[in-house]
Amino acid sequence: xxxxxxxxxxxxxxxxxxxxxxxxxxxxxxxxxxxxxxxxxxxxxxxxxxxxxxxxxxxxxxxxxxxxxxxxxxxxxxxxxxxxxxxxxxxxxxxxxxxxxxxxxxxxxxxxxxxxxxxxxxxxxxxxxxxxxxxxxxxxxxxxxxxxxxxxxxxxxxxxxxxxxxxxxxxxxxxxxxxxxxxxxxxxxxxxxxxxxxxxxxxxxxxxxxxxxxxxxxxxxxxxxxxxxxxxxxxxxxxxxxxxxxxxxxxxxxxxxxxxxxxxxxxxxxxxxxxxxxxxxxxxxxxxxxxxxxxxxxxxxxxxxxxxxxxxxxxxxxxxxxxxxxxxxxxxxxxxxxxx
Length: 340
Description:
By secondary structure, the protein is mainly α. The chain is built from 22 helices and no strands.
């Protein structure tokens, strides 16, 4: 597969097979790196007119072939997308648009592996391919889209939200698992929507969806320590053993750092208090007695055992007074001999 790809790439570039068509950018990880040196490097390929016509003919023959040839075509297109200079000359986006409607679900599912890089090359036409795939009912395609949903969130942002909403209503457990794990990417777009999605997920009939809510609880507490919507009590009252096991460590940490926040959870929890009390008593028996007394209005609120991490203070003015760029370069050049 890779040998054929390299041969096809060499045809499109009209260069001899077996050579490196580009060179990597030299950086500080290399010995002898000089940040001020100007060294011309071939970092991009240039398509050859006749070469791309020949390579496009090969791709057309593959596209018109049987299932195995079309699967090979998608693998080659995925690699060719790493060459921006070949995307338009070879018509790679048009190929993906057609294969997204391929009669074989396996071919369309493999198109999903190209979506992230495709959107980077052409966002509008990439979204067209995504929507075409999203309209299909094939299970393999739905699973393929769910697997790349996180990568799509980082590239198409709000355009991926409708995909997530539809996947959260899917009846396949694999799709639900991938989508519910991806819902926490919403916090980078809209925290209110993220919180509302987690609250709805706790009412989902599929256990895997409810369990994946716990993945984002630590970020949720960091962003909204007051927990105005009561997400933590609702998650604890779910009764699912896996949810409570994952949530228990977070609540135990809350007991150590901020008992006030845990007290709010205690007040809203109707069931399962005894399980958390047993976990606290297993670590510190006297701590469990303090909480039990507080719950029975027979004692004060327990104090924090650990102080919350303090953000680092900015450096003093003296430490922030750095030399200018020209002065620093002179020191490196004259005293240390770093510059050529």
